[in-house]
């Protein structure tokens, strides 16, 4: 199963997934609307490798300045995408 198909079936309607360009695993970034979803501040990426679904998500995020949330979330997504992949 492709990851896009999995996300289409399993994600709430308020969540969209964006492909990371040129990613060897076809990883995708979770995008949540902050006005409709209280998990919008927790950046996540997901990919499938060796038939295993892998999701990397930062929980317990804190933003001292609420207006910085979007920029900080994008920064964390970039870091998640660069982590060494398993399995």
TrEMBL record:
Disordered, as annotated region: 16-37
Taxonomy, superkingdom: Bacteria
The protein's name in its UniProt record: Uncharacterized protein
Biological source species: Raineya orbicola
Lineage: Bacteria, Pseudomonadati, Bacteroidota, Cytophagia, Cytophagales
């Amino acid at each position: 199963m492709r990851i896009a198909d999995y996300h289409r079936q399993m994600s709430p309607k308020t969540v969209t997934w964006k492909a990371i360009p040129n990613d060897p695993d076809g990883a995708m970034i979770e995008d949540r609307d902050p006005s409709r979803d209280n998990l919008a501040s927790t950046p996540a990426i997901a990919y499938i490798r060796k038939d295993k679904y892998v999701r990397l998500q930062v929980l317990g995020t804190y933003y001292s300045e609420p207006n910085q949330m979007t920029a900080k979330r994008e920064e964390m997504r970039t870091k998640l995408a660069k982590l060494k992949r398993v399995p």
